[in-house]
Every structure is written in structure tokens, then in C-alpha cells.
TrEMBL record:
One GO cellular component term noted in the UniProt record for this chain: lysosomal membrane
Residues passing through the membrane, by range: 28-49, 69-89, 109-133, 153-176, 196-215, 244-267, 287-311
Record-given protein name: G-protein coupled receptor 143
InterPro entries associated with the record: GPR143 (IPR001414)
Membrane topology per record: Multi-pass membrane protein
Amino acid sequence: MASPRLETYCCPNRDAATQLVMNFQPEVFCGVCIGSASVSLLLTILQLLPKKGQSPRKMPKASSSSTILLLISICDPLGGLGIIFRSSVWLGFPDFIANISVVNGTDVWPSVFCVGSAMWIQLLYSAGFWWLFCYAVDSYLVVRRSAGLSTIVLYHMMTWGLAVMLCVEGIALLYYPSLSSCENGLEHAVPHYVTTYAPLLLVLVVNPILFRRTVSAVASLLKGRQGIYTENERRLGTEIQIRFFKIMLVFIICWLSNIINESLLFYLELQPDINEMPLKNIRSAALITWIVMGVLNPMQGFLFTLAFYGWTGWRVDLKWRKREIPWESMSSSTAGENTYPSPVNYQNNIHESKKISTTDSQQTDDAISMLSEGNTSSDERITRSSPIYQGW
């Protein structure tokens, strides 16, 4: 699981709330994390591998949106690998982990492992948050025809730059001036928690707004493509809306427990004694959400592939096959049909206007296909309703 408590546990003089959750059935908790992360990793790989008897996913052309979806699907399994590694060492070498609690210990490797594994997990999941934010931005820009493959460079710079900067800044503020003096006050911990949860809250608040604006823009595009709003266009707009809803639903399910748990632990930290009887229910709720985090956080990778592509099946095809972009064959066949010159000169203007309309319509189809990438039925409806397909 991904929580700033992983970094605060590296402090020998950690606060009582962190001590409460990290010492609650650590063997069971690590086992839950390993099991959830392993299942998610295997199912994510299964989802992304090509399948027998299925044609490759249809895409009009390489797009920044499809690249972002792939990067999100990669960041989560890599973060899950960090969870598996950290939990395995925790279970397999309890004496090694026990040295983290030694205030004046001479062995620095337990602290190095603690800090390094925590940063690995936080960095990759934080990068996944930033990529998810970039996906919402890119979806809106694609519909507005203001994005393309060139923008992926800017997304890389923003995502990895902000993820590394916030992670390093939070860790530096937490451990300043040294591990032995961190967590002496909230002035060390609060900046670390802010840098950890800032991208999460950004996705939680801003992405729904961007998705809503994108859905409205898609509806306008579909209405203006042929001047009418048919049942196919309505269904396609609904499917894109459902796709965005699934993405946000997965995100909320996987990370809402983190926000609840952190709120409860911060409340306990403000109490003079967290072991008082009136706080029993709050302690129990914090421990329950702690275990829930260990289950849901690593499962985000697999659940996102379901939201992106749906269930792709079990039959894996490891043979390499050349993927053919259907739009190329359509364009070539259309070009072949239009090779005959017009016998009358005045038809040139009509031909040019149709060409411009066809280009605009294809750009609209391309933009919508990028948003519905991975949905076969949507791709087929776009193709059938396209003027190119109809020989317009």
C-alpha cells in the first residue's frame, strides 16, 4: 500500500499514531499487501498481453491519450513490485527491520531500506496520479483539437518532474536534519503529508470537472459532425461518459480509505493519549481502514485496465503480429475510388468542399476514437457513421 506513514515509520522516534498502525498485526498486514499486489500484478500483465482470436485494438493513429493510458497501467504494477519487495523483506527478516527502531544504532542499512522502499512506492504511485491528471487534460485538449503527440513530451516533463520534486522535497523536510530528529514536531510531518496527498487530491477534485467538460464537448462534436444527433452518436457519447465514470470510480474506491485513515490518525495525534477509552472506536476505525488500504491500493493497476479496456480474456497469444491500422486501408481505398477526374469543371468546387468536410469529420472521428480507445463497439460505430466509410 502507499501511505506517508511508511516514511514516518523510518523515524526511530515516530509518533504514537504511526506506531499504532504499523505495529498492528504486521505479519498479517504484510501478507495482505503481498497477496493483493501479486494478484493485481499478474492480472494486469494478463490484461495487457495480446489474446488469441482477437484482432488488435483499433486506433486511428498513435495518440498521446493511448500512451498515457499505457503509462498509467505500467506505473501501478511497478509500485506494486515495490510493495511486494518491502513486505517480503519485512516478513522474511524481522531482526533486520527491528533495527529501524534503534535510536542510536550503528547499522544504517535498515534505515536505507526503509527510506528507499518507501520512496520507490510513493514516487511511482504519485507519478500514476499525475499521469491520470494528464489524461483528463489531454482528453479535453484532444476534443478541442489542441493536443497531439508533441504534447506527450510536456506531459513527461510535468509528471516525472513534479513527482520527483514533491517526493524529494517531502522526504527532505521530514528527515531534516537527520533520521534521529525527524517527527519531533508536526512541522516535519505536515509538509511531507501535503506533498504526498497533493496529486491525489488534485485528481479527486479537478479530473471530474475536466471529464464533465470533455463529455459536453464530445456531444457538441457529434451533433456538428453531420448536423444531426442520431442514436449511434448518443450511445457513443454515453459510452465515453461511462468510461470516465469508471476511471473515477476505481480511483475513489482505491484511495478513499487513505484519506479516511489519514484523517483519523491525525485526529489521534492531536490527542494527549491515544489509548484512552473514548478513542477506542476511532482507533478501531483507523486499524480497519489501514488493512483496507493494504488490499485496495495495489489493486488499482488491474482495476484501471478494466476501466480502460474492459476484460480482455484469458487466452494469451505470444506470437508477434503486425498491427494494421484500419484507417490506412480506408484512406487508400477512398483514394482509389476518387482517382477518376471529374468530367465537368464546375464540380471541382463541390469536390473541394466535400474534401474539407471529410477532413473535418475524420479529425472528429479521430478525436472521439482516442477517447473510446479499447472499446470495439465504439470503434465500429465511429467507422460506420464516418462519411469516409459511407463513400461520401
